[in-house]
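From the thread on structure requests for the teaching lab: each student submitted one protein with a one-line request. Submission from student K.M.:

"Model Putative pre-16S rRNA nuclease from Stenotrophomonas rhizophila, C-alpha cells only."
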Amino acid sequence: MSEPATPAPAAPAPPTIRRDGTVLGFDVGSRRIGVAIGSSFGTHARAIAVVDVHGNGPDWTAVERLIKEWRPDGLVVGDPLTLDGQDQPNRKRAQGFARQLRERFKLPVVLVDERSSSVEAARRFAVERAEGRKRRRDAAALDAVAAAVIIERWLSCPDDATPVS
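Reply posted by the TA:
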C-alpha cells in the first residue's frame, strides 16, 4: 500500500504592513513620483517629496534617502486603473516600481486602487490656494498630494490592498 502524496508546500504569504506602523506612499507617474508619509495614529497623510523619473527609471538615490529618513514599516503604491477597473498604460510602470521597492528595500509593499486620487489631490490643492496656504508654484507638489490620498485610502481600508510579493 503506497502512502498518499503530500501536497506541495504553499508559497509563503508576503509580509504585511503593521497596522500600527508608518508608511510611505507613492503616486507613480512617467516624469515624477509623488511621495507622502502617513501612520495609523491619524487618518491623514502628509505630502513630503517629489522624486524625478529619468530615462533609466526613478531616482533611486532619492527614494533611498526618503526611506532612510522616515524609516517606514511598509510602502503603499497607487495602482492606476481606469474608472471601470481596467488596466491603463501607467499600471505596468506602477506595478514594476512596487516590485522594485520590495526587492531593493525588503519592506512590505502593497498596491492600493488610486482611481481619482489625482482629482482629489487637485481639489485639495485648489482649496488650499483659495485659503492662501498654497501658491501656483506649489503645483509641482501635486503628485505628492496624490500620494497622501493613496495612503489615506490604505489607512481607511487596509484589507483592500494587494500585497506585492
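TA comment: The chain has one domain: 22-163. The longest strand covers residues 45-54.
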